[in-house]
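Box 3.1 A note on notation
Throughout this textbook, protein chains are presented in two layers. The first layer is the amino acid sequence; the second is a token string describing backbone geometry. Keep the layers aligned when reading.
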Amino acid sequence: MKPGSWKRDWLQFRLLSRDAVRQLLDTALFSRDADPIEFAIWMMALVATPTAFFAMQQFRTFAGLHNAPADVVEEVALGLRLFFILYGMLASALLAALTWDALFPDGRDQEVVGVLPVRPRTFAASRLGAAVTVGLVFSAAVNLPAALIFSIFHAGHPLYGGGQIPGLVTGHVLATMLGSMFVFFSLLAVRGLAAIMFGTRAGGWLGAALQLITVVLMFEVFFFLPGVLSTLGSRILSGDVTALWFPPVWFAALHAWVAGSANQLLEDATLRGLIAVAAATLVVVPIYLVPAGWLGRRALETRSRERAAATTFVVQSVGSITRSTPAVRAVLLFAVASLVRSRRHLTILASYFGIAVAVSIASILTIEVRGSFVVDRPFEGVLAVPLVFVFFGVMGLRASFRIPTEVEANWSFRMAPPSL
């Protein structure tokens, strides 16, 4: 390759990366008709606020442990570290789910860039670089405020002393950032393998499932995980090797190692975590760059056919069970088709459905802990679950219908509003 081509590829990479960052934000925040930067700032603040407030509440935790034995303090501190690491991982998983469709160039991108003198690998590298940039900034916004607040309260305990603040802050930042980027890079690799092996349609369904799971887990994390992670922390400190199968333990061990309080089990877990991050980073690059040309050609060939097939199937299914006047039926099928074709609206519905699942799980588990959960006769705790899903389903539909799917297609309704 000539030296001039390297310079040209680098300039193209920088230009395409800036546009790819904006496109990723548009996809994640559904801000196609507005500036995504403002939406991104608000979203990062929203996601970072729970951990910051949770870190502030730990002032009372460490104050109550002022005269506690050292092993009890270490157990509680390790459980809290695991919580922050796991929350950062879930936040990165949610970001990967929201940007799922924009991680690879689609057919529309190929129609525009494919005719330009741009190498497919350069285009794919720009999209990958934009994803890494967004992931790093997002992870920093989620983890850094909580790291500073928690480390100050952590170092205020007599067991650590105020002089350990730099080590505690460094350990917290490294552990949470590496844990978040490990999950993000791993999901980038999964997205690439899904696109290569199963196609765009299967990758889209996988992204919807991932988003549903992350919404449920992020909702449940504040209800159940603090107690569970405290128990896990005691198992780690007792030398239970089965704890090494839990990835957040690898990065909590890194935190302990940097802070100077790691045992042999935690040192082994630290090495495992560093190897996992390096492997995820090295694997994701060839997955995106090597098949770039082939994936671009396939995106052009399959985009319209797969989208039309999925939309037609859903509309025909709804139409077969709908019995109404022709006008009502036409408007209903038009609304269903518009909803199915828009990933923005499906994502909103999936988020509300995830909240419904999380609320139902929290309610059922709370009743089970009290010992009053029954399934052999009607019980208000079980009968309320369908009502919860109906409520959040209606709220999700209302939120979806407030956002136009295609503003340009609204001209027909402006000219002749339907009379039902």
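The chain is about 80% helix and 0% strand. The chain has a mean pLDDT of 75.
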